[in-house]
Amino acid sequence: MSKPHAKSESAGHAGEKAAARSLGFDRGQTYNETKTMQAWERFLTGDAATGRLPVRRMIEHSWARSVASGVDAHGSGSPLVADEDQFHRLRRENRELLAAAAHTFEHSARLLEGTSAMVILTDRNGTILETGGDTRTIDAGHDISLERGGSWNESVVGTNGIGTALSTGKPVFVHAAEHFCEGVKSWTCAGAPIRDPLDRSVVGLIDISGPIEIFQGHNVAMAVVAAEQIELALGERARAERLRLLEACLSTMPGGNSSDVVVVLDRQGRVIHLSDGPLPAQDGTADPVDLSIGRRLADLDGVRTDRDIFDRLPEHLHPSWLKPLLVGDELSGAILIYAGSRQKRRRRTPPAASIPVPSSPRMPVIVGQSEALQNALTKAKQVARSRASVLLEGETGVGKELFAQLIHTTGSTTGNEPYIVFNCGAVSKDLIGAELFGHVAGAYTGATREGRRGRFELAQGGTLCLDEIGELPLDLQPYLLRVLEEGVVYRLGEGKPRPIDVRLVSSTNRNLKEEVAAGRFRQDLYYRIRAVAIDIPPLRDRTADIAPLIDHFNAMFAAKYGVEPLHIDEAARQALVRHGWPGNARELRNLIESLTLMSTDREVALDDLSDEIRQPSAPGGDPRQEPVPVAEGVSLEDAEREAIVQAIEAGGGNLSLVAKQLKISRSTLYRKLKQYGLRR
371-535: which CATH architecture? Predict the structure, then answer.
């Protein structure tokens, strides 16, 4: 195998000696190529049975593990490379790691361009998820499968900077002849594990690799710093996720006993919240159960029902009540309630609700008397009498989901027709087809053994609401068009047509006409889904509805939390009416809920409101900053992205300041950052 564009031998050996003296070799040791190769040969022939080898103990121990794993010492790199399906599945499983590492990885890759070094990100098992840096070194890495999808676990490739760091759980470097496999000995590498901020388990690894002349003492330090930066990003994402789950709990928890213990699990089945101390004793045991933060109670991967969660919990920790927590249409955790001593404990009675549950919602309450809103409502009720496809257009938070429910319930004949909601932006591209159309057993890697119905089949005879349809990948749009035109669906992996009778209601906050013009949305599909289009006006265009909405949300949350309604004085009420509500009715709803929870005297004055609401603005106007001139041909999304970029630069990466400057919530800012692929 050729060496990866190595420099002259003399220059390379001089660099090795200088770097070796600066690294953590055993006392009195320096790296010696000849002696290390001789030690490796003695080790393989069994001549090293007595006496110490002239190599680091860490290397000697790793060689021993490599032999025990049956690694071919004369191999030329990784023999295992994931195929395309496996690789996509691995990336999806590690999406949190990839997202948290993106900024640090991209920065490191830019720094290493032209340096003969490459940076590598792997999963917890040593499979490479991403590579970057010097293009020539990346190309040379293909010769030994040091590439995306390649497995560099120590049990597969023997001693190397990736696998040995994961095996020991510590940052390590492995240089040249120290590698176990002969075909890798022209490389040097330094790896540092990345740990989960909650339970400190290893979730991945960052590695710097290249030809032997990049061997420097600071390589390990660079890898450690990068790993720490990724861990900080993971911690920030974990905190944001915890807040989202706790917010979801507020709308999910039933009324209960004050002595009940509430446990919240994340998507990995780990405890992220425990109310009021340890869990009471279970099954007659004397000692209370200690559920420390970070403890993994169950593997929630692939669960679909409440019963699945119940069955995966330890038998002595079966709760009296549980509910999955969803973000969009995806399981993000679970809430468990253990009845306290003043309430009879009910154990081993698993709940039966499934995810998703085909159900028919009740008639929604849509508050407002403005002409703009009433026109939209009239149009929705008229189209509900037909089976025509409906496109609901409007900004985020205007209530598109309520209009979809209104169309379904108004057009219902029995009241039992299923109503299925699917968020096209909440599922990875690889899984949308299976989620919409279903699949048969073994249709793709990760498919369920028994196969599964898709959303179209679940909605048979009722309504399928496709939220954020503008996020549907372009290459999947012809399949949706075919289903709508032919009235049949084909499960993935099956040629059998299955007739469907489904009312389609689509919704979007994008301008789909602009998406069609830009080539991001098919024109034929656009006209197929908008047999009737309903534009739901933003709250700032119907100020007459703000006061009734305030009263509606005030009464609703007072009843929900068992408190007296708020008394909002006239100055505060006028400020609320003047505010432009960029988040529309959802923003107003969240504000009233927050005031309900935080108020101690049930009085709301002007000083209780935020600065952006107190600041007066023109009636019906948007109180955010003056409109920024947009160049001709620039889309609304491009302008919004540029405004966020400028705010991040002005705020020095402080997302609290950025959200305040843009007059949006931090959760909205996080969604926008993800939508536009931006980093702080």
Answer: 3-Layer(aba) Sandwich (3.40)
